[in-house]
Specification:
Elements (H helix, E strand, L loop, with lengths): L20 E4 L1 E2 L4 E5 L2 E5 L10 E2 L5 H6 L3 E2 L6 H6 L6 H11 L33 E4 L3 E4 L1 E2 L2 E3 H23 L5 H6 L14 H18 L5 E4 L6 E7 L2 H12 L2 E6 L6 E5 L15 H19 L1
Parallel strand pairs: 1-12
Antiparallel strand pairs: 2-6, 3-4, 4-10, 5-9, 7-8, 11-12, 13-14
Amino acid sequence: MGFGEAGLMDDEGRLASPVGARGGIWVPPDAKLEFVEGKPYIFYPVPPNWPSTISIQQLNFEELKKLGWTYKESTDKLLDDFVKLANATPNKVLKFVKKWGPLWACVSHSTHKANLADVLGVEIVSLIHPIGPLHGDAALGFSWCSWVPAEDVSNFVKEAKRAKAALSIYTCFKLGKEEDPNDWGTLGFEGKLKITDNASAEEKNFIKKMLLCNFVESRLSEVGFSIDPQSLKLQIVFDLGFLRAAWLQLAQAMTAMRGIYVCDGCGDVYVRALKKPVEGKFNFCPQCGKKGAKRAYYRRKKNANLNS
C-alpha cells in the first residue's frame, strides 16, 4: 500500500518532518553486533570505568565525546530510515544505529509485563529529559533512569513495526479501505478492538481513529518547542535519542503538516497543510486565502504603476 496516496509524503516524496527538531541524538563512532544467548545485541563504546548499568547521574557526554561520539543536529530522512527497520536484519539495524545512535531504552522503567504496561503491551522509555528523570509511583517505588550500553536489536524492530503499522492504518482511513487486523495487533490492540454492534459505521470509524491518535500521542510524551536563536525558526525539542523525533515526524506526516509560516496577508502565524508555499512567492493562511492573493496582486500592480 502506497503511503503517497494517503498524502503522507512531502513534496520530495519523503516521510519527512517540515519542522526542525532539536534533542539528544548522539551517534557513536562505532558499534558492534554480538549475540548473547542467541539474541542479537548492539554494543556501544563507553569509558572503561563506567558501570555495566549507567544511571543518569553517571552519564557524562563530555567523556563520550572524547571517545568520538558526535551530536547530530539534522533529522532529515529519519522517519524514512526508521520505518525500514520493520523488517530489518540485525546488520541493517546496526547500520541504522551508526547513523542515528542508540534507542536509549531506560532499563529502570521499560517493562515487558502486560499488567504494568499500557495498551502497547511493551513500553520503551527514553533515558533522559531535562524536566526530571526520576519516575515511578507509590506502589512500585521511584527510581532514576538508567541505561545499559548494549541494546536488544528486537526492540528497534518492534518499535519500527509499530510506526509502520500506524502509517498503514492511517493510509486505510484516508483511502477508505479496511485496516489489516495485524496492524492493530502490532499496536497492542489485539483482542481489544471491540465496538458495540449497534454503533454506526461512522461511529466505528471515529472510535478507531481516536484509538490511533491516542496511540501516536502516547509516543509523543516529553516534547516541547523552542526558538533557534541563530535562524529564529521554531523547533521541536525532544528528549534523548531518535525515537521521539521519529514519532514526531510520523505525527506531522499524518496531520499533513508542512511547516509553520507567517501569513503575508494578516501577519498571523499559521500551520501549513498540504503543499509548502512556492519559494519567493507570497503565502496566505486559510482565513486570508484567495482574497489575500488578490489583494497582494492589486497591491503589486499599483506599486508597479507608481514606479513606471
